[in-house]
Amino acid sequence: MATPTFETLLYAVEDGIATVTLNRPDKLNAFTPRMMHELIAVFDETDADDSVRAVIVTGAGRAFCAGADLSAGAATFDYDKLAVADRMAAKTDEGIQRDGGGLVTLRIFESLKPVIAAVNGAAVGIGATMQLAMDFRLASTEARYGFVFSRRGIHLEAASSWFLPRLVGIPTALEWCYTGRLLPAQEAHEHGLVRSLHAPHDLLPAARALAREIADNSAPVSVALTRQLIWRMAGAAHPMEAHRADSRGIQSRGRSADAREGVSSFLEKRPAIFPDHVSTDLPDIWPHWQKPDFL
Question: What distance in Å separates the CA atoms of residue 256 and residue 246, rounded to the nearest whole number?
Answer without folding.
Answer: 15
